[in-house]
Amino acid sequence: xxxxxxxxxxxxDIGGPATYSKLLLEELSKRNxxxxxxxxxxxxxxxxxxxxxxxxxxxxxxxxxxxxxxxLRLGKKADVIFAQDPVSAGLPAMLAAKILRKRxxxxxxxxxxxxxxxxxxGARDLINDFQTKKYGWQIEVLRKIQSWVAKNAxxxxxxxxxxxxxxxxxxxxxxxxxxxYNGVDLPELKFTAKxxxxxxxxxxxxxxxxxxxLEAFSVLIKDFPDWKLAIIGAGPELNKLKVESGKLKVxxxxxxxxxxxxxxxxxxxxxASIFALNTGYEGFSHQIVEAMxxxxxxxxxxxxxxxxxxxxxxxxLLAEYNNVQSLNSALRKxxxxxxxxxxxxxxxxxxxxxxxxxRMVIELTDLLKNL
Length: 371
Known about the structure:
The chain is of the alpha/beta class. It is built from 14 helices and 13 strands. The protein has helices spanning 16-29, 62-75, 90-100, 112-120, 127-130, 137-151, 161-168, 210-220, 238-247, 262-271, 286-293, 324-336, 338-352, 357-370, and strands at residues 2-6, 34-40, 51-54, 80-83, 103-107, 155-158, 177-179, 197-201, 228-232, 254-258, 274-277, 298-301, 316-319.
């Protein structure tokens, strides 16, 4: 089968669609698929012939038209066009697929209109509330585009049952939406003696809830003075969080690492005793699964796809998003009880085996062949 993968980002870009597209290129090529990739970005020396990059130096609109034209050109030789987002890659890919009368598949890992609304257009609501409200014209245009692209796909792939409900709410028929849990490239860890260390990782944006996590930790440190908290990631909230840690008088107990390469992140996973993620939204969290692979007890929120990974009290703990008292109570249990940490961590490790890369690739391969 000849597959054209249309993605907005590709390594060395960082992000889920980039990692996923690279994985498809590597794994499907081993299974008698002919793969072509198109993405935005500057051409690199050493890029393979089957990777086409469209420069971001072109103004918006022009670069999207060039992208569409290249999908049209490359799509002539493809059996299936597989887009990794519903707007920047999905819209030009869908239009090209219609003209060429090719099968079109769409991967949806979140609500593009919601994400852009938060980052660019002043939206403040979490994703569930966003689905039922009206906003400014920019957000509503993005919302109409993503739903139109999804409705015109032959198949929409999502990484969680939660996201299936979201996409269904856009007017896409349930039988066109297929859940395939993402496969995590399981980290190779060199385990060391566990430290009294809590780690949290993610982009430093408001809905990741790092501020409430800091507040919960600052209360606990009075009873657990030997513990530290490492916040791994970069983003617009970094300076604000550093100031907040000073106000809470825990600057000497909190480590802000910035964005880390995989090897350094894995080092933190191997040394830590608890992984905590106070998040207002996750479609499917690779970071939670990677923490579980490391045998860490996970404390996170019961939002999005998290309850499909974490079973409260069995392989981790669930708390209420941004509820400092709820976070404080759950963290206290874990910090005070090494046996609880060990039992939850072992169950987490067992659960993580269900989210392996091989299983995901097999499910996707079967789905593509059945088209």
